[in-house]
Amino acid sequence: MKLGEDSSQKRRSLILMVGITIGVYLGFKYLLPLILPFLFAYFLAWIVRPVTESLYRKFKIPRILGGSASLLLLIAVFGTSICLLINILVKQAIAFIRNMPIYLDIIASKLDKICSHCDKLFGLDGGTMRATMDDNILQMVNRVKTQVIPEITQHTISITIRVIGVIGILLIVFVAAVLIVKDLPDFHKKYEKNSLYHDIHRVTQKLSEAGLAYLRSQLIIMITIAGICILGLSLTKNEYAALAGIGIAIMDALPVLGSGIILVPWAIIMLIAGDIYSAAIIITTFLACQILREILEPKLIGNRIGIKPLFTLVAMYVGLKLFSIAGFILGPIGLIIIQTVYKAVNEREEKTAGKEEILVKSKTE
To answer: Where are the domains of the chain?
Structure first.
């Protein structure tokens, strides 16, 4: 009898897990795009709520005014920081584009040497490899001219419409955040007596803690690695240190790719060019990034969200396969939702079973 109950319990748990997983997938695919602006608005309201409530208690400033002022200040600070960063990156990008002919000449001279060595190695006529490479490059340039550029030109109007749409969504997010700040206390008072509210609140609270811990941890790791890369590239006197450092940090955050896909070939090129100092600095930067991620990721992500690093990596991979780049974040968050909801349902059923058992015992007595 006990064996049959255990088998039934395992089957029920498996069905529950599969059902929750399917529900999370369908929610991410169809429901999330509809409610994402309002989730972001709630996040903004959550950030400014302490300031808004403080202004309301101390100075009797209405929540809608305090929330609006707090959000505008937050947007101003964040926007100014982003503008300063973009200004630095744009300047470095412009400098890179201006120096492109010099870099192309250097690359061309290196290619000449490599192609001549290949001709000698394979016993080909002089200039054969270079002619083949020039043909391939010419085909690629022609493809860009005939396909890519016209495609971009044709979609200019649609891109403009999308930009206008994004601006409209941002306005909706701002207004929604202000209204959430204003009505959140009344909302809690109205629904906190409902038993279903407590179950949902327990799940959302756990999810918000774990989800924010994951996002915060990834942001900390990315900023730290960007700082290390910028410092390392600055030591090599690279004039594009900020631009390259941020790009490497973004690549490092992506599973499988990592910072090595840029830094290791870069170090090899410097070594071949005879710049041993730069090669040593770049390799040291790469090793520092790897060690830092190995140390920080388990502590900041695995321990904070209660999921082992291996499962987090698997969730990232599955998320990337299902939802493209957005799955890098959605995968682990989906795993957190599945784990949290599964535990909450089990805890609720155990409490219900315990109450029924006590009720049966009291009746028999």
So the answer is: 192-365
**Cβ-count burial of 278 within 10 angstroms (0-12 exposed, 13-18 middle, 19+ buried)?**
buried
Termini Cα distance of the chain: 25
The angle subtended at Cα 312 by Cα 309 and Cα 316, nearest 5°, is: 140
Q: At which residue do the structure tokens 């505008």 appear?
A: 72
Query: Is the pLDDT assigned to residue 5 strictly greater than 70?
Result: no
Please answer whether residues 316 and 217 qualify as being in contact, where contact means their C-beta atoms are separated by less than 8 angstroms. Answer: no
172 by Cβ neighbours in 10 Å (0-12 / 13-18 / 19+) ranks as: middle
For the chain, helix, strand, coil in percent to 5 are 90, 0, 10
Q: What is d(CA 31, CA 365) in angstroms, rounded to the nearest whole number? A: 50
Polymer length in residues for the chain: 365
Segment 211-231, tens digit of pLDDT: 667 677 778 888 899 999 999
DSSP at 307: -
pTM above 0.85, yes or no: no
In degrees, to the nearest 5, what angle opens at C-alpha 319 toward C-alphas 313 and 321?
110
Count of other CB atoms within 10 angstroms of residue 336: 24
Concatenating the DSSP letter of every residue in 184-216 gives HHHHHHHHTTSHHHHHHHHHHHHHHHHHHHHHH
> How far is the C-alpha of 27 from the C-alpha of 29, rounded, in Å?
6
Compute the distance between CA of residue 296 and CA of residue 225 in angstroms, rounded to an integer.
11
> 255 and 329 in contact (C-beta within 8 Å)?
no
Q: Are 249 and 226 in contact (CB under 8 A)?
A: yes
Tell me the average pLDDT across 80-107.
Answer: 79
| Separation between Cα atoms, residue 362 and residue 365, nearest integer Å | 5
Residue 249 has pLDDT above 70, yes or no: yes
Count of helices and strands (H, E) across the chain: 14, 0
- Cα(328)–Cα(68) distance, rounded to whole angstroms? 32
Please answer whether residues 330 and 28 qualify as being in contact, where contact means their C-beta atoms are separated by less than 8 angstroms: yes
